[in-house]
Structures are given as structure tokens and as C-alpha cells.
Design a protein that fits this description.
This protein has two helices and 13 strands; from the N terminus they run ββββαβββββββββα. By secondary structure, the chain is mainly beta. The chain has one domain (4-182): Jelly Rolls.
Length: 187
């Protein structure tokens, strides 16, 4: 049996990955990455950096990306808690330019999202102590780092209501991010 399901989204190259879990009376086992299967599905490494963030409920991180030649593809996975994860196409000339897709990723559902180079990425934590990990195809490069305002009305991302009346929390940098129309994006 195939250990992964790969589902294309409305944005070319953004792929939702569902790993198969093999349960027994001790718990479950799952492959979470296999180069041959991912490459065949259009998710190409090599992966050069792994990141891990821990977030309180309501924490928004994003919308982040790096410009070429340091553009990053990101394979995003939640290992504890849950997030609403978003990819925004910032590749001028693509029919999906300026559109977004979102998915709930959680430790419980085990799903991942592949965000290719040319897409901005962001998420909001839906539980306290949410752990998100992601593999990157390029190393962090400070001078290439960019962001877009998470709640830009032109993007109209459907961010979820937060549980228990929690407030959205942003870093100073993310709160000061430019609007999509003013952002430096891929040409």
C-alpha cells in the first residue's frame, strides 16, 4: 500500500499530503517523508534546513517568503496541537497569482502542506503549545526575507475564529508587513 496520498490544490504546486498511519494496540506508525514518493508527486528537495516553532493559541506567523535566488519551498507539519495553515501564490504571471489556499493541520490528522517557492506561507495556532515543523529547500537568508500583511483585504484570507475568544497575536515585524499590492513578489 502507498504510504502517502498527494492532493493538488487550487494553486499549482501547492500540495496537501496525507500520510498513511498504521495503528495497532501500542499506537501507530507513519512514514512522514520518503524522497522517491515526494519527488514523484512533484515535491522536490533537497531539503537544506528544518525549522520548529512553538506557538500559543492565536499566534500568527506570516505571511513569509524569501526572494530568489534564496526562495524556499516548505513542507509544513504539525506535531502537537493544530493550526490553520495558508499558502498565497505570489508568482506574477500565474493564473492563481494573489489567491490563497488553507488547510487545518494537526497532530491528530497528520496532514502536511507543501508550499513551493513562489508562495508566501503563514499560519495561526488554534491551540496553546502548538508545535509546527517544516523542511525548507533553502537556508534562511535574512536579506531575501519578505512578508505580506496577514489580514490584507485584497487577499481576503478566511482566518478562523479563535477558540475561547482568544485574540490574534503578531510579532512587531509581522504587524508592520506591507500589503500585498506593495510587497516585493516574484516576477
Amino acid at each position: 500500500m502507498v504510504p502517502f496520498e498527494f492532493h493538488n490544490t487550487d494553486i499549482p504546486g501547492v500540495i496537501r499530503v496525507v500520510p498513511r498511519r498504521f495503528p495497532d494496540d501500542r499506537g501507530w506508525f507513519s512514514e512522514v517523508y520518503k524522497d522517491s514518493d515526494f519527488s514523484a508527486a512533484g515535491i522536490a528537495g533537497p531539503f537544506l534546513q528544518d525549522n520548529h516553532s512553538v506557538s500559543a493559541v492565536g499566534t500568527v506567523r506570516g505571511l513569509h517568503y524569501q526572494l530568489p535566488p534564496h526562495a524556499q519551498g516548505k513542507l509544513v507539519r504539525v506535531v502537537r496541537g493544530r493550526v490553520w495553515d495558508v499558502a498565497v501564490d505570489i508568482r506574477r504571471g500565474f493564473s492563481s497569482w494573489g489567491t490563497w489556499v488553507g488547510a487545518e493541520l494537526s497532530a491528530e490528522n497528520g496532514e502536511m502542506l507543501w508550499v513551493p517557492p513562489g508562495c508566501a506561507h503563514g499560519f495561526v495556532a488554534l491551540e496553546d503549545d502548538t508545535h509546527l515543523t517544516y523542511k525548507c529547500t533553502a537556508e534562511y537568508h535574512k536579506d531575501s526575507e519578505r512578508a505580506i500583511r496577514w489580514d490584507d483585504p485584497d487577499l481576503a484570507i478566511a482566518w478562523p475564529a479563535l477558540p475561547g475568544g482568544a485574540e490574534y497575536r503578531l510579532s512587531e515585524k509581522d504587524a508592520a508587513a506591507p500589503a500585498f499590492a506593495e510587497a516585493e513578489v516574484f516576477s
